Amino acid sequence: MKSFTHFIAFPFFFLLNGFICLAQQNPNNPYGLKIISSYQEYSASYQSVPNYRLVELKKVIPNIALDIRYASKNNFMKEVMYKQARAFARKPVADQLKIIQSELNKKGYGLKIFDAYRPYAVTIAFYEKASDKRFVADPKKGSKHNRGCAVDLTLINLKTGKEIQMPTPYDSFQAAAAASYSQLPPNVIKNREMLISIMQKHGFRVIAHEWWHFDFIGWEKYPLMDIPFERL
């Protein structure tokens, strides 16, 4: 007959081994953040919680415009940061953007996406290379973009395909980039407020210093991710 300690130790060994394997698969980064960095772990996460799935925006909103700046050198970093010009967001984010696009289309407008989900490794690169750290996310905290819950965007005229006039270009460091900056022509303020209003209506909040950046309400529930586009 096996001893009582054998029955206790045997399952404890497998439990301990399971924790060790999990730790090896999901190592903490230097800042102690939990980052999903393997496709297997990401797949398991959305099978458990379907809303965790990253959806490719062009597939669910075919007529959405893309101008993925970090896949080119046309950005504040002046270098290519993404290998592919694609845009992803968590499923609830994509669902709301689809509704917004439909409402805008009825008024003759549409969305143009500059950036959405951003792998955590790119956030680190931004922070290391940016001359002014105030305008990039701190990797000690991670970014809402890393969670698939932030989008950078503007509005276009559907007939011409051109962007409507906004206070500044995308990723501008000017004071006029602030969402509440008032020393602007009335039509520009009207355009900015139209964008902010429809985004807020559907669960997004603009950040104070960037009229183009919107965070999805409830972003805290989504884990930080470091899966490159080519793996999605």
- Distance, first to last CA: 52 Å
Quaternary status: single chain
In spatial order, strands of the major sheet run: 3-5-6-8-7
What is the CATH class? Alpha Beta
How many domains, as an integer? 1
Q: How many separate helices?
A: 6
Residue share in helix: 25-40%
Number of strands: 9
Which stretches are low in confidence, meaning pLDDT under 50 for 5 or more residues running?
1-26
Shape designation: globular
Largest sheet, in brief, is: 5 strands, mixed
What's the architecture, going by CATH?
A: 2-Layer Sandwich
Strand content: 15-25%
Q: Examine the coordinates and then state which fold CATH places here, giving the name of the CATH topology.
A: Muramoyl-pentapeptide Carboxypeptidase, domain 2
Secondary-structure class:
alpha/beta
Mean pLDDT: 89
Order of helices and strands: HEHEHEEHEHEHEEE
- Gyration radius over CA: 21 Å
Short key terms for the protein model shown above:
232 residues, alpha/beta, Muramoyl-pentapeptide Carboxypeptidase, domain 2, five-stranded mixed sheet, 9 strands, globular, disordered N terminus
Short summary of the structure?
This protein has 232 residues and is of the alpha/beta class. The protein has 6 helices and 9 strands; from the N terminus they run αβαβαββαβαβαβββ.
Could you characterize the architecture of this molecule?
This protein has 232 residues and is α/β, with parallel strands linked by helices. The chain has a single domain (53-231), classed as Muramoyl-pentapeptide Carboxypeptidase, domain 2 (2-Layer Sandwich). 33% of the residues lie in helices and 16% in strands. The chain has six helices and nine strands. The chain has helices spanning 4-25, 39-48, 57-60, 91-105, 120-129, 186-201; strands at residues 35-36, 54-56, 65-66, 88-90, 109-115, 150-157, 204-207, 210-216, 224-225. The strands form three sheets. It has a five-stranded mixed beta sheet with strand order 3-5-6-8-7, covered by helices on one side. A two-stranded parallel ribbon has the order 1-9.
